Amino acid sequence: MTHTKTTILSLPEEEFVNPGTRACAGCALGTAYRVALKAMGRNTILVVPPSCLTVLQGLYPIAATKLPSLNVTFASTAAAATGLTSALKALGKTDINVVAWAGDGGTSDIGLQALSGAAERGDNFLFICYDNEGYMNTGVQRSGTTPQGAITSNTPLKGKLQQKKDVPSIMAAHGISYVATCSAAYPLDLYDKVRKAMTLPGVKYINIHIPCPPGWGFDTRYAVKVGKLAVETGLYELYEVENSVSRLSGASRKLIDKRALVPVSEYFRAQSRFKLMREAQIGEIQKQIDARWVRYFESPEDNGES
After folding, report:
1. In total, how many domains does the chain have?
2. Among 1, 94, 290, 303, which is 20 to 30 Å from 50 by CA?
3. Would residue 124 count as lying in a domain?
């Protein structure tokens, strides 16, 4: 389905997040949450496990969100969304959207089994992972999506040794109707992808890159700058997978025309969590990025937008 691209002037004015939240200063989750809820609309029920989003929303009866939200256990987010979808169907309420919002820990680690099961069954809801690359709410511990080399509270001496888990690819391998990657630094691209996902059947999966000032180690005013660097360096790609066909989108698609990437060292140096990384390690990651993007540059017709 083709949608007209949203501009800042055409973004809906209605707000579903009340002014003032308990999020950290400079938290990119607040931006992503505010914009994505605009795309979902009022007829939406959220399913949220323990996470930074739980903190942002606040506790009943005083909450930052204007939408009903079901707080569930870490491992049960997708299972609860399945149950909620089935209950609404049994009641004949087919005009209400169910959207699960979980952090990377509650998605890539603790919640992956339930999410995989829902995808295999073809349940009808949208699952959003806001990926700030660590268990930030409980003290900045490593998660499956923490990048290699990043310092966390339980990888303090050498940084994380393992590579980041590629959850979008895992979800795409299930053959679901829609997988997309987004960044809080590109809110209009995020809005359009959430809006598209809401029109499609079955489980849909969206991964949002969320810069985290206290967890990543940068000044609170630089969340958008750091988020854009991740994309401009080619380290984090914005793309969509529809009917098992993958294509770059948004700012990542525009990089094909420029045929130039910002050195990944600029992204790493902007954050204190990578201060233990050596030049040789950064150089190896740069080679991996370059090799991946050579394929994009050589076959731009395979990575265009529909």
Report:
1. 1
2. 94
3. yes
Domain range spanning residue 184? 28-303
| Predicted pLDDT at 306 | 42
Q: What tokens appear for 203 in the block? A: 């489980």
Q: Is residue 11 part of a domain?
A: no
pLDDT tens-digit map of 204-247? 999 999 999 999 999 999 999 999 999 999 999 999 999 889 99
In terms of Cα–Cα distance, which of 256, 274, 57, 33 is closest to 159?
Answer: 274
pLDDT of residue 63: 85
Q: Which amino acid is at 28?
A: A
Looking at the DSSP bridge assignments, the partners of residue 45 are 98
CATH at 111: 3.40.50.970
